[in-house]
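Incident log, structure service

09:12 report received: a user says their structure output differs between two submissions of the same chain.
09:20 pulled the input from the user's history:
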Amino acid sequence: MPVSSRIEHRLRPADRNDLPRLGEIARHGLADAVALDLAALQKEENLFVAEWRTAIDGFIVLLPLQSSLLISRLVVAEEARGQGLGAWLLDCATFHARGLDLVAVEIQRPEQDAAGITWLTKRGFVRNPHGGNKVYLSRNV
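09:34 re-ran on a clean worker, output below:
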């Protein structure tokens, strides 16, 4: 599912040659990076690479559910943050969900991640009622 934009950005399925760079991005950007099995996600075709300008600067893990697409992970390399890559990845997830005839994109954030929750709500995600220590957010496609 290659998705291209006009300005040197591309989302594509990860291949095994991408795994070392994705592991590096995960180690610096995810608290649970050790538990993340990138190779398995790549084989299951749920792992997508963000080529941003000329480098791999992020990745997203997309898991189709019954009527929605779950963003399991969205990670941007530290050196690429603040340039719109995360928002672009959210838009790519929405595009992918439409292609699968799904009605929404979902993401979960820890309750204490106020900055991340605010960032998502500014991009059209709404909080869904749910118990527990996670905040569930969704956006219609």
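09:41 both user submissions now match this output. Likely a transient worker issue. Closing.
09:42 reviewer note: Residues 3-140 form a domain with the Aminopeptidase fold (CATH 3.40.630.30). The chain has one domain: 3-140.
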